Predict the structure.
Amino acid sequence: MAQLWGGRFTKKTDQMVYEFNASIEFDKRLLKQDIQGSKAHVTMLAKQGILTEEERDTIIAGLCSIREDVENGSLIIDMTYEDVHSFVEANLIDRIGDAGKKLHTGRSRNDQVALDMRLYTRERVIAVDAALKALLETILKTMEENIHTYMPGFTHLQKAQPITLAHHYGAYFEMFKRDRQRMKDIYERMNYCPLGAGALAGTTYPLDREYTSELLGFYGPTLNSMDSVADRDYLIEFLAALSTVMMHLSRFSEEIIIWNSNEYQFVEIDDAFSTGSSIMPQKKNPDIAELVRGKTGRVYGALMSLLTTMKGIPLAYNKDMQEDKEVAFDAMDTALNCIVLFTGMLETLKFRKDRMAASAMNGFTNATDAADYLVGKGVPFRDAHGIIGRLVLYCIDKNTSIDALSLEELKAISDKFEEDIYDAVSLKTCVEKRLTIGAPGPDAMGKVIAVEKEYLQNTKNGLSQESLQQ
Ligand code: ARG
């Protein structure tokens, strides 16, 4: 047992209580942020004359050596410490003696952990934004190459109207672009520094909170010390945004699984991103897509868990809040891995364009266009809809398609049909005439692709990286 307190206690902590209370097993991943925050804190304390410059330098050297030793494996974070904060402070005192005991001047573990978690989350927000950017680049590349790759568009998973692969991918481009915008919003709102809030009511030391905030790359200090130690909104927002990312990835995964099925065969997943069966030698399974779809649940779970943890706790800090870490870390790891793996799978995905086009040609995806053709010949739309409905029924009975009927057969249903019907209901016309903004027609698609290219160019540096350099 190694803890930062004990003076007012007359008994040793019960071992089970100690273990139940300890967080080192999971908050050890905050070591880098803990040291980064401590360095900024002592730098500020020295500037304010609360520590001497010599003390500051000794403490900073000690902190850096702890980080280095943990990184090179010569110092192991052992589980006898209560948490990462105790581990760092105890090791610092071991290494530099009395100066180390001054590290915690004007600080509480409450504002310390609030800072560590915020620094860590901020890094993850930046990393998710970068991963989403790489995903968008992959999607845009496929869009550019497939403006003329026809495929059926679905509603109710029934063939509806023909579209292109570029158009289908374009839908996901918009989703992940909004996900990136959510990352930016979260970053903007969370980028304020809680350090200096103390346990809950600030401190009586003349801390310069503006200065620590600046040293740590924040926009400024948080404005209420109670809120500073009690706020986990930013983490909830991040988990909500990650849940949305996962929901998008999961839908896309579901489509890849369908497209990869024996019945569809629209795509072939690369061998490197598929797995086999232990019993059925012919199998090549879309496990990555299935796992991404499956892992969505645990990210939603993290969001629900933290929302529930936070909903009933009075101000300010309560130990319940320690429960923010395991679920949030797991969700961050999961979502980031899923984005990266999914991007790799898309990069290597092969399209069976012949099968996609053939599928777009059957299933009466041109029925709306056939009705629109009659409208062009002066038939009111509702009547045209009825005529084409009867035509479809006739085709189903004869096991054929609208474009394969003879002009006589067509005229038997409506005398408005002329030779130009065949061009009007061809796959090419059905797609290329759809030219409103956001539609699959190649000209409309080309304009959208140009806008998205510019967007990627304008956001190529992602969110601010400055704060990560320390
Ligand atoms: N391990 C704690 C957490 O994650 C650190 C803060 C402890 N503060 C306290 N007053 N016990 O929340």
Observations:
- The mean pLDDT is 94.
- The pocket of arginine is lined by residues 23, 27, 83, 109-110, 113, 317, 319, 321-322 (CB under 6 Å).
- The chain is about 60% helix and 5% strand.
